[in-house]
Amino acid sequence: MAYGSTSNMKSPPKKPAKKPVKKPVKKALTPAQEKKLKAHSVHHTKKHIDMMRKDMMAGMPFSKAHTKASRMIGK
């Protein structure tokens, strides 16, 4: 066989591609989360609270949702 020939060499079997795992979307916030947002809304705008609610419905914890909303929208 000539140098560089690959007729005898087999490539290792390819692994199937993993599908991305989607987080389940909640249908509603828990009563405790609603209560916490209600108290939180006293010093924040409706836009801030709406963004937090949307993120929390997507599975984000309260503190991370607050930090994200604060950075993107402000108080």
Helix content: 40-55%
* Intertermini distance: 72 Å
The rough form would be described as: elongated
Number of helices, where a helix is a run of at least 4 consecutive DSSP H or I residues: 3
- Low-confidence parts: none
Elements, N to C (H/E)? HHH
Overall SS class: mainly alpha
Tell me, rounded to a whole number, the average pLDDT. 84
The value of Rg in angstroms is 24 Å
Count of distinct strands: 0
Strand content: under 5%
Task: Give a quick account of the main beta sheet: strands, pairing sense, barrel closure.
Answer: none
Describe the structure.
By secondary structure, the chain is mainly α. The chain has a domain at 31-72. 44% of the residues lie in helices and 0% in strands. The protein contains 3 helices and no strands. The chain has helices at 31-40, 46-57, 62-72. The longest helix is centred in the last third of the chain and has 12 residues, at 46-57. It is elongated.
Furnish the topology, listing elements before pairings.
Elements: H1 31-40, H2 46-57, H3 62-72
Short précis:
The chain is mainly α and 75 residues long. The protein has three helices and no strands. The radius of gyration is 24 Å and the shape is elongated.
Which tags fit this structure?
mainly alpha; single chain; 75 residues
